Amino acid sequence: MGDFYIKPATDRPEAGGVEPRKPSGADPVYVPLGPVLGEDESGHLHRVAAELAAGNAARVQILREGLKSAQGAARLATAAGLGSLGGRDAIGALRELLEGPDPASWELAVYGLRQAKGRDGWLCLESVAQESVPDLTADDAAKGRAAALRLLMMGRTKTMDRLFRAADGHSRSIPQKAAQAFIEAALSSIPPDQARVMSLRLGAADGRSRTPAEVAAATGLSVERVRELESVAWATVQSPRPWSALESLR
Asked: What is the spatial distance between Cα 121 and Cα 124, in angstroms, rounded to a whole number?
């Protein structure tokens, strides 16, 4: 780990302490992340945690400013930097984008959150997905479309899985009306042949899901073709997509 600057010490180190190196000219004094003068283990851990947090806060602020000024690939890289950094402040900055009104910012936030190394990014995506469900059935149609658009741009989450499974009205956690609104939006975002197969497989129209063989009989397609179309449709719907790829919901 790197060194941290501290005020030069004038006393000699106690047992177990670290002797600061002598400065050359006006150079600052650095010590390793080991115990410093008179510091017990608890104090050492608290100091290191505080210094690391301060360093991360500064980096988050720099990246936040970068999001405002950067363009194109540089802006994506900045979002990825926040995701990779992780922690409450960095993930919070991306969440602010995802909860805002601008779909272009949602795209940026999703990209950054999916770069997170720990669980923070996934937990944030899941939390925002859950909060979007009630808006699917909002009286304001534009609000409902926005909720569906955000969910589809985010890609697969546990909430998305629950929405698809709730089409038959048997879910305890997802209202059938919300599931139907989401599925309708999802089907509108894929080619018609895939949408027809998916609608029958999910039972989107009548709550009765069909087997591949039943879909084949209803559509005149082979069972193999039905499975192929379904596989491609799932891959598309479950993958994060840019705003430009979801024109039907814009």
From this structure: 5
Assigned domain for 119 exists: no
- d(C-alpha 24, C-alpha 237), whole Å: 61
CA 218 to CA 189: how far, in whole Å?
22
Residue 122 lies in a domain: no
Q: Are 148 and 185 in contact (CB under 8 A)?
A: yes
The pLDDT of residue 70 is: 80
The CATH code of the domain that includes 245 is 1.10.10.10
For residue 39, what pLDDT is reported?
58
Low-confidence residues of the chain: pLDDT under 70: 1-55, 250
Smallest CA-to-CA distance from 76 within 48, 26, 114, 42 is with 114
CA distance 229 to 112: 30
The number of folded domains in the chain is: 1
Asked if the structure places residue 63 within a domain, the reply is no
* Owning domain of residue 163: 136-250
How does pLDDT run across 61-97, given as a tens digit for each residue?
888 888 888 888 899 999 999 999 888 899 999 999 9
* 200 falls within a domain: yes
